[in-house]
Amino acid sequence: MDVLTDLANYVKSLGMESLILTSRMDGEAREVGRYLASIALEAKFRGVPIRRGFILSGGEPTVTVVGNGRGGRTTEMCAGFALSVRGVEGVSMISVATDGIDGNMDAAGCVADGHLIDEAVKFGIDSISELRNNNTAVIFEKNEYHNTNGVDREQPKHSHGSIYLRLLK
Question: Which stretch of DSSP H or E encloses residue 91?
Fold first, then answer.
């Protein structure tokens, strides 16, 4: 919760509104992404629970590995989000692994918006197939929608990977 409170305070210092949704989000990462997309879309089109600003959430989403690809919780969550907001302007998701690494890739998080899936298609990437194969890293690496800043494999793996959504109008 400290990370979320710090983010909320930072957003406020910039003169913007935020809402801490929960610090205990759990479930399959791709489904958490879809759920957060539904909240972002509700906010964009109805102004509920927030009209403009940041919806902050944290927790421990999981990934059930059935494929042999690369990626982790943040990329699977953002892929689920991106599939749900495809073609929608003004909503985005930033997902950060607070332990500095996401699954088996050198990234500390990623960004998703309404353009990500169409951009992946331009590279010949079938995002749904890659998600089924737990190979979501390719979606973000090709598009440069991932963050490798601050990757430190020596950090302990005790993350409460915080996620936050940004709504713009």
Answer: strand 91-96
